Amino acid sequence: MTGCEPLEKKKQQQHTSVNGDVCSEAAVEDAFDHTYKEKEGPKPPRVMVWRNVILMTLLHIGAAYGLFLIPTASPSTLLWSLVCFLLSALGVTAGAHRLWSHRAYKASLPLRIFLALSNSMAFQNDIFEWARDHRVHHKYSETDADPHNAGRGFFFSHIGWLLVRKHPDVIEKGRKLELSDLLADKVVMFQRRHYKLSVLLMCFFIPMFVPWYFWGESLWVAYFIPALLRYTLVLNATWLVNSAAHMWGNRPYDRNINPRENRFVTFSAIGEGFHNYHHTFPYDYATSEYGCKLNLTTCFIDFMCFLGLAKDRKRVSREVVQSRIQRTGDGSHRSG
Questions:
Q1: Quick one: residue 174, left, alpha or beta (phi over 0 = left, psi -120 to 50 = alpha)?
Q2: The sheet that has 314-316: what strands, in order across it?
Q3: What pLDDT score was predicted for residue 2?
Q4: How many CA atoms lie within 13 A of 181 on its CB side?
């Protein structure tokens, strides 16, 4: 490495780029803050957000009904639902997560617009809020300042965190983060200003309208399957990264942290289940040492680079990965 070396030695991380060596200007923001101490004394009272409780309950009831409608849907509608699932998932994984939260690669304006639209189709808060909360999650993982602290149990880390008010430490630490890159991104700010309209259009109207208009699917089926059921499945696939991938699986890179390697989550969240690796090396654009293997999001980013729409993919060197495995891994690592 070049000028990055001293910083990387301190952080026990080394970032290289597929296009050459690069330094991560936000390595400090991405690293776990060992200086943080949870406040002593009783925890603040849990305040329910009943609006979210009601909406999430109705959403999952509607999704369950959508499952019963699957036999009545045309093959084209089912294929369209899968396309919408992949598009909205990429808006989270390749967009809000790897591009905007971790700045693990650079994207051109057309690609950023595409990912922002896909992110609105996923309807998981706007990019700015998603990336802010995710940076807080990495910096204070499994503490009171973690928005979906897995130490509070599966239900809380999966969906419960959205049904209650945030812990005061989450809000406090989120306000102190360096977010100038997000504020300076016109695509992120445009989506934030027009988020509600973009969600109505991308998450509900377009998934419903396309099968009705182009191949005569009933609006009823078009609403409950490619819109409601697909949306609910993407939500839960994302939530499994916060819950299951922090509880079940092996820890070949760092046995001292909770995040795990979970193959089911890797499949359902199109590549986000290599979670022990990701929390050990959060700036690796592939979130895994295996590249495209079981990682559709990494394949997508690589293809965008091939088309010239993305560049500067950050990658952890093989030597650093092996060194970390030997030093802190749980002994379960397998190559390939």
A1: alpha
A2: 20-21, 15-17, 314-316
A3: 31
A4: 17
Nearest to 170, CA basis, from 180, 182, 162, 181: 162
- The distance from CA 192 to its chain's CA centroid, rounded to whole angstroms, is 18
CA torsion through residues 268, 77, 54, 145, sign: positive
Q: Which amino acid is at 320?
A: V
- H or E segment at 256? none
Alpha carbons within 13 angstroms on the beta-carbon side of residue 221 total 21
Q: What is the pLDDT of residues 217-266, one digit of tens each?
A: 999 999 999 999 999 999 999 999 999 999 999 999 999 999 999 999 99
Please name which of 16, 11, 50, 15 lies closest in space to residue 31, comparing C-alpha atoms. 11
Which tokens go with 89? 């998932």
Domain boundaries, the chain: 5-32+46-328
Q: Of 123, 120, 152, 119, which is closest to residue 55 (Cα–Cα)?
A: 123
Integer Cα distance of 316 and 141 in angstroms: 21
Handedness of CA 225, 227, 233, 234 (dihedral sign): positive
CA distance 236 to 274: 17
Model confidence at 283, pLDDT cuts 50, 70, 90, reads very high
The letter for the amino acid at 336 is G
CB 102 within 8 A of CB 15: no
Give the separation between CA 23 and CA 16, rounded to whole angstroms.
8
**How many other CB atoms are found less than 10 A from the CB of residue 183?**
10
